[in-house]
């Protein structure tokens, strides 16, 4: 059996459709049987390998599509919009995901030696998955329902996955995650600050100082990693948070705008429309209708 076919079969066997399942710390699998609506989320440093179907992740208006046999690497926390583009009951969208943690990557850099490729500085990239990368993924999935085997063997399989990533097409990008004193680590510190203080006024000069960089260097490297300026990044967080609130809470649109940091309702509506294509009020109504439709489908799909 082909490695990708086996990976697809194992994930399908180990997950219920529409649900995400944790295998071990930092590793999840999921499958969905219908295309999903675009959903804003915060993507953390991670690897996602698609075994079937097509996923789209949009960063600052730029789509990254990856399909069966391809993987996405995210190197820093990023506000993105994600959706499954191709999925059906006969051919569900199936994906394997693993967190990329600096503490796990750093020791491998000592073993890997000097990088053979020029360093990359970007937040997200797509590549084809090699057989060497898929092999430890499949071996990990084979023992997904054997707790004793997982406890002993899973750390080694995860380490092997990281090894092949470091030595693959996106190796330079993954290496950056493990460099504690690298520029990506400094930018990550700034990203964490913005996430925690997104409602406050942002001073790029002060934030650069917090990250130990000059304002010009911080601005240049921040944009390279996220495709956005710090101010644009903050705006994305505000708007995605507002959209979540519109979907989960009833309330005045202007109040939600004020809550996420906007001082002007008109500015909030204008920037919301620019990102999501509709006004906040209309989007709230559409999101509510989508949620009701999903609930209706789930009830119809339930066995009698």
UniProtKB/TrEMBL annotation:
Keywords annotated in UniProt: Transcription, Transcription regulation
Record carries keyword Transmembrane helix: no
Record-annotated HTH araC/xylS-type domain positions: 188-286
One MF term in the entry's GO annotations: sequence-specific DNA binding
InterPro entries, sorted: Homeodomain-like_sf, HTH_AraC, Tscrpt_reg_HTH_AraC_N
SUPFAM superfamilies referenced in this protein's UniProt entry, alphabetically: Homeodomain-like
Pfam family of the protein (one): HTH_18
The keyword Transcription regulation appears for this protein: yes
Protein name: Transcriptional regulator, AraC family
Source organism per UniProt: Microbispora rosea
């Amino acid at each position: 059996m082909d490695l990708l076919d086996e990976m697809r079969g194992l994930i399908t066997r180990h997950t219920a459709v529409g649900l995400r399942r944790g295998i071990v710390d930092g590793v999840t699998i999921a499958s969905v049987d219908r295309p999903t609506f675009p959903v804003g989320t915060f993507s953390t440093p991670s690897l996602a390998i698609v075994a079937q179907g097509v996923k789209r992740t949009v960063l600052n208006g730029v789509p990254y599509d990856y399909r069966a046999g391809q993987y996405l690497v995210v190197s820093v926390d990023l506000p993105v919009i994600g959706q499954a583009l191709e999925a059906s009951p006969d051919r569900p969208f199936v994906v394997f995901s693993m967190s990329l943690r600096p503490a796990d990557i750093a020791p491998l850099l000592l073993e890997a030696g000097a990088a053979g490729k020029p360093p990359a500085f970007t937040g997200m990239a797509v590549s084809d998955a090699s057989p060497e990368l898929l092999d430890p993924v499949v071996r990990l999935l084979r023992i997904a329902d054997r707790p004793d085997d997982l406890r002993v063997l899973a750390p080694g399989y995860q380490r092997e996955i990281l090894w092949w990533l470091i030595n693959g097409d996106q190796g330079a990008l993954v290496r950056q995650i493990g460099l504690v004193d690298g520029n990506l680590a400094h930018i990550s510190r700034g990203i964490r600050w913005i996430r925690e203080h997104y409602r406050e006024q942002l001073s790029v000069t002060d934030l650069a100082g917090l990250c130990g960089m000059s304002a010009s260097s911080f601005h240049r490297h921040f944009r390279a990693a996220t495709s956005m300026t710090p101010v644009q990044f903050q705006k994305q967080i505000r708007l995605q948070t507002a959209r979540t609130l519109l979907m989960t809470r009833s309330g005045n649109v202007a109040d939600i705008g004020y809550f996420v940091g906007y001082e002007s309702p008109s500015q909030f509506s204008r920037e919301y429309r620019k990102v999501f294509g509709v006004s906040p009020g209309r989007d709230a109504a559409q999101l509510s209708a989508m949620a009701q439709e999903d609930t209706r489908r789930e009830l119809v799909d339930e066995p009698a």
